[in-house]
Amino acid sequence: MDKYKIGIIGCGYVGLITGVCFAELGNKVICHDIDKEKIVKLKQGIVPFFELGLAKMFTKNKNRLSFTISVEEVIENSDYIFICVGSPSRNNGEADTTSLFRVIDQINSYVKTYKMIIIKSTVPVGTAKKVKELLKEKIEQDLIEVISNPEFLREGNAIYDFMNPDRIVIGADSFKKAKNVARLYQTFSCPILLVSNEDAELIKYASNNFLAMKISFINEIANICERVGADISKVSYGIGLDHRIGNNYLQAGLGFGGPCLTKDLKAMIAFCKRVITYEPHLLKAVLKVNELQPELVIKKVKEVLGNLEGKRIGILGLSFKPGTDDMRNAPALKLITSLVKEGTELIAYDPKANKVAKELLKDQIEFAKEPYQVSYQSYALIIVTEWKEFLDLDYEKIKSYMIKPILVDGRNMFDNDRIQKLKKMGFQYFGVGRNLL
Ligand SMILES: NC(=O)c1ccc[n+]([C@@H]2O[C@H](COP(=O)([O-])OP(=O)(O)OC[C@H]3O[C@@H](n4cnc5c(N)ncnc54)[C@H](O)[C@@H]3O)[C@@H](O)[C@H]2O)c1
């Protein structure tokens, strides 16, 4: 028997995964998106993006899932309405909440019976308060509650993360309202935090900003390693063994990207400056280190190859991380833009993201159908995304295709044994922050 009637507004990564997972938990879920093509595909049973395990779970639960282009239909047919629309960066870094407020206007027009409006999108502190002001009449008529319930899933691991969260954060202006939403997560064994809307909104930003800080921190230490003859893989391991620090998000490389870490860092910096007139020195440094990281890799390539003009370089991996085809804020984009400016001829391959990348980069670079193609007549290969399959490529074959056997491991994915094998084959290997004696 279906448990609860859940509505999802915005069927992107978070919305669709939330909808499919709630269906898996036995709920009846109705999903809406403004993008009609997306809804047509979903109605045909086609998942519009790649995420590990999603298509399978989607098919398994198709009887509990429905899709509509009408927001009204979602509002009528659900008690808990999750808003999962995007909150992208504006040019000045602020979070653009236009989509969220468009949905709130529609909710204001269509709600006739009691509904929980749950904001899952990542939105700046104070947004739920503004939403409540807009929905004031409906709230006074006891028709609407506004809840903040940020999402912490990671793309590439999204289904697992949704089903096995470290915590659920529910922000509301009363314990009773928050508990009502906590029922949806009752089968989970993690802590469920019942807090204010402001607490919930800030927990989300602070978490992502902290993760970004860990990555920029280890990249800074990696840059120091290169100058003092230390090896970041050992240093990072040594730091991470301290349980107060932990070893997650301590892998040096080309820096962070994706739909959240950069956007949420920029949004927090902009919020501090404009809304609360506070200068976030640390957060600004985290962003700066990340922006410089791909440039340091290019510098390394130039030190070996000299002028890059007209030289062909192969790129392995484009998505912002393995397990997804998401290219939003992918470090590959920054790296490729800079290399194209240098006059480099680029050819790239990604196991999943070629199509998405082609739409973004158009004919600025060539795309390979298979990984070996990027090595033909190349002066260097740069690993940008640590897809596991890159470890198992035939590097003898790759070397035989290359003009110069230079391998830049922008993700430090090769361990010492593998690096020694590559060196024996004749490769010149460069990692990030690695001193390989
Ligand atoms: N992607 C992640 O890993 C992740 C993780 C945690 C939190 N978040 C947050 O969740 C939110 C959604 O992120 P996402 O990655 O799913 O974004 P997305 O861009 O993949 O999806 C947003 C969806 O909302 C739809 N949409 C936009 N305006 C709409 C409207 N007015 N009515 C109905 N649908 C509308 C879009 O068509 C799109 O399908 C963001 O605030 C993001 O910061 C994302």
From TrEMBL:
MF term (GO), any: NAD binding
Enzyme Commission (EC) number: 1.1.1.22
Annotated transmembrane regions: none
Catalyzed reaction equations: UDP-alpha-D-glucose + 2 NAD(+) + H2O = UDP-alpha-D-glucuronate + 2 NADH + 3 H(+)
Residues noted as binding NAD(+) in the record, renumbered to the chain: 33, 38, 122, 155, 263, 328
EC supergroup of this enzyme: oxidoreductase
Residue ranges occupied by any UDP-glucose/GDP-mannose dehydrogenase C-terminal domain in the UniProt entry: 314-416
SUPFAM superfamilies according to UniProt: 6-phosphogluconate dehydrogenase C-terminal domain-like, NAD(P)-binding Rossmann-fold domains, UDP-glucose/GDP-mannose dehydrogenase C-terminal domain
Residues binding substrate, per UniProt: 152-155, 204, 249-253, 257, 321
UniProt-listed Gene3D superfamilies: Cytochrome c1, transmembrane anchor, C-terminal, NAD(P)-binding Rossmann-like Domain
Keywords, alphabetical: NAD, Oxidoreductase
Pathway(s) annotated for this protein in UniProt: Nucleotide-sugar biosynthesis; UDP-alpha-D-glucuronate biosynthesis; UDP-alpha-D-glucuronate from UDP-alpha-D-glucose: step 1/1
Residues the record marks as active site: 260
KW Nuclease (keyword) present: no
InterPro entries: 6-PGluconate_DH-like_C_sf (IPR008927), NAD(P)-bd_dom_sf (IPR036291), UDP-Glc/GDP-Man (IPR017476), UDP-Glc/GDP-Man_DH_C (IPR014027), UDP-Glc/GDP-Man_DH_C_sf (IPR036220), UDP-Glc/GDP-Man_DH_dimer (IPR014026), UDP-Glc/GDP-Man_DH_N (IPR001732), UDPglc_DH_bac (IPR028357)
Record flagged with keyword Iron: no
Gene Ontology BP term (one): polysaccharide biosynthetic process
PANTHER family with a match to the protein in the record: UDP-GLUCOSE 6-DEHYDROGENASE TUAD
NCBIfam families per UniProt: NDP-sugDHase
Family that this chain belongs to: Belongs to the UDP-glucose/GDP-mannose dehydrogenase family.
The protein's name in its UniProt record: UDP-glucose 6-dehydrogenase
